[in-house]
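Fold this sequence, please.
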Amino acid sequence: MFQFTALPPLSLYIHLPWCIRKCPYCDFNSHALKDTVPETVYVDAVLRDLEQDLPRIWGRRIVSVFMGGGTPSLFSPEALGQLLSGLRARLSINADAEITLEANPGTAEQEKFREYRALGINRLSIGVQSFHDDALQALGRIHGRGEAIRAVEMAHAAGFDNFNLDLMFALPNQTLTQAAEDVATAIDLEPTHISWYQLTLEPNTQFHAQPPVLPDNDRVWRIQQTGQQQLAKAGYGQYEISAYAKEKRQCAHNLNYWQFGDYLGLGAGAHGKITDAAQQTITRLAKQRQPQAFMDTAGTAQGIQSERVLTRKDVGLEFMMNALRLNAGFEPALFPAHTGQQLVLIASPLRAAEEAGLLERTLKRIQPTEKGRRFLDDLLTLFVVEQRV
């Protein structure tokens, strides 16, 4: 039985699924655009999707909005304006809510950025990935170094004082020098946040089927150590596995995910997690994955591809899989507040993790040690085993 005394914060995620072309490493629900973006039809479908979900969140306020993809910047400012107007007419969005739009340099136009800012979008996440043209070509990106730098300059010029750069390392044939140059260039462009993460070969991607030559583990480790030192020296504090931010510029939306908050997911393939205090349940939902199927069924029962009510052991594992990504871990009181369960539910794996030197625990905080962050998979495995018992 769950015991919620209050509801966790609620975020909103909207998935805009089209890209100009599919990158060979990407396992997200993105689809190469074969024609023009069906903006009006898709926005209408998202709003129908929202109306169907509204009874699940009556009376709750939205603390952050994230428009991801795909390439949301393929949508015109007019279409995004219609979307945001529709959201605001149906939802209570906090006046200071962080509202993020993902953008790719290959689809960036300065006038577009100014109009996005005028709509109330107050944060961009720009998918740069690298500043080396050969690396970008190997990754299948449609932009080059010059376009990446111009996109960031456009963000500054358009009035965005809060934006993220996505940057990858351990790229095909990447040297330590090239990786360090990427990090240095990103720092010089003065974003408030840098997502710096390792390229991995995900199933159901072209790279998984035809693997490129990647740096060996020793080089990857040297790249990671060097990059972390560069970021720390420049004032970007690491607060999550791959997230680095200036002071008070952590991504509020992602923090809510990692702290096991609630989120409403709208759009093709979007996932959501909703706590119901009256029913004492936590439910995970997923929407139809294919864009056409989503547009055809949004707002109907067929528009929901899956719906699952979590068990007690589900929430223990899922909470820890998210919260232990954070360098600072979590306050013990957050566990019962966001799971409806007492911490005793995971007492055994917590003890095992402490004994293994992967976790440290005080009355005020539970957090991974440096060893635990380095061997996070080993740490999380302890909770996976407990969930299966």
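The chain has two domains: 10-255, 312-389. The first strand starts at residue 10 and ends at 16.
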